[in-house]
Amino acid sequence: MATSMNRRNWLKASAMLAGGLTFFSGAVNTAFARPINILSGNKGKRMTDELFAEEAEEPSIPKLKARLFANENPFGPSAKAKKAIKEAMATSYQYPFMKMRELQAKIATFEGVKKEQVYMSAGSSPILLAAAMHFSKNGGTIICGDPSYDDLTHRVDGFGGKVVKVPLTSDYKLDLDAMEKLVDEKTSLVYLVNPNNPTGTIVDTAKLKAFVDRVSKKTTVFIDEAYIDYVADPVGTTLIDSVKKGQNVIVARTFSKLYGFAGLRVGYMIAQPEMVKALEGYSNGGGSISATSINAALASYNDREFLDEALAKTNQSKKFLFDLLTKEGYTYIPSSTNFVMFPLNMDGERFTGEMMKRGVGVRFWKFNNKSWCRVSIGKMNEMQAFAEAFKELS
Ligand SMILES: Cc1ncc(COP(=O)(O)O)c(C=O)c1O
């Protein structure tokens, strides 16, 4: 019989093999200076939950007081979404074909695009995976920011493609000028995360649109707008207008963030119909979303009352964090998202380990010769737990 310790060790070893990582106690693949990669790959995600369960049995690790490592929205999902989930239960023996189309049509109408331009997916991760496969074909090169969300780019190697990472500007934004200079005939995709994860920064919209006008004539531009709902003016910031102009642009969106649907799994992309056709060959698309989640998305799409309230609470917690960091003598990168990155005075691995011992889960990165902590914005009690633990270490 496998003892709990054996199982724990096995899980840790498996997680390391799966993603080149360890968790909590030694959580970084130093060779690649990658962060605790709990979000990379399905295997990694599954392992994370199992590791939590296992670690919870470990007396030296206290119960998690603050879950500030996955950029989730603890204020969601909305009451309307929860009600819709309950209502969908009775008919959930049926495949939700019609509801799926209704959701796709609702999004298409709101965004002013054709239905064939909206590709639904169980979260946006399957779209990132589809793009990684498609644009790696024939050894294509994918240009991305560094550091940036690497769910798409870290898989490219395995599919025969290449990644060119372009360091961020001195104000931690995507360096569009440097990226544009690197586009050549081998470039199959430019992947831009805007706002960027992990830095929380956003590029100037006019500059981005002008970049896309030029670059989309040479290659496909993919804008990952996972955090767009957190910016002051999402409609004025999105690049869906560039898709509407007929440009070779993919915009990916998710309900996982401000809608609070990370566990419900709803996402979509908007692109030219032929691009939708090309990418749908790699994924089951909306067919992987459950009836309950589709109903929840239908009920809460553009529910401004809920979204505005969640945003206000997020901003309140974010202000608390900014004030704390300033008081403790730290700087931080101004953030347009539900997470904040700041430079540490100690090794990131040690810091995250010490925070975890105090029941606070955060992540770290290493770049520009520094360790950085990324804190997701949680409920006020979670931010207070962060503050308490942080003050003991800062
Ligand atoms: C920038 C970015 N894109 C995409 C995703 C994937 O999210 P999901 O698959 O839940 O839609 C995340 C998740 O954290 C993210 O940060």
Description:
The protein is α/β, with parallel strands linked by helices. The chain folds into two domains: 62-77 and 304-394, Aspartate Aminotransferase, domain 1 (Alpha-Beta Complex), CATH 3.90.1150; 79-300, Aspartate Aminotransferase, domain 2. 41% of the residues lie in helices and 15% in strands. The protein is built from 14 helices and twelve strands. Strands 2-8-7-6-5-3-4 form a seven-stranded mixed beta sheet, sandwiched between helices. Strands 9-12-11 form a three-stranded antiparallel beta sheet, covered by helices on one side. It has a two-stranded parallel sheet with strand order 1-10. Helix 3 packs antiparallel against helix 11 (291-300). The chain is globular, with a radius of gyration of 21 Å. Mean pLDDT is 88; it is low at 1-47.
What would CATH call the architecture of the largest domain? Answer: 3-Layer(aba) Sandwich
Instruction: Give the beta-strand count.
Output: 12
Number of helices: 14
In CATH, what is the homologous superfamily of the largest domain? Answer: Type I PLP-dependent aspartate aminotransferase-like (Major domain)
Query: Helix/strand-derived class?
Result: alpha/beta
How far the N terminus sits from the C terminus, by CA atoms, comes to: 44 Å
Share of helical residues: 40-55%
Encode the helix/strand succession as letters.
HHEHHEHEEHEHEHHEEHHHEHEEEH
User: How many structural domains in the coordinates?
Assistant: 2
Poorly predicted regions are 1-47
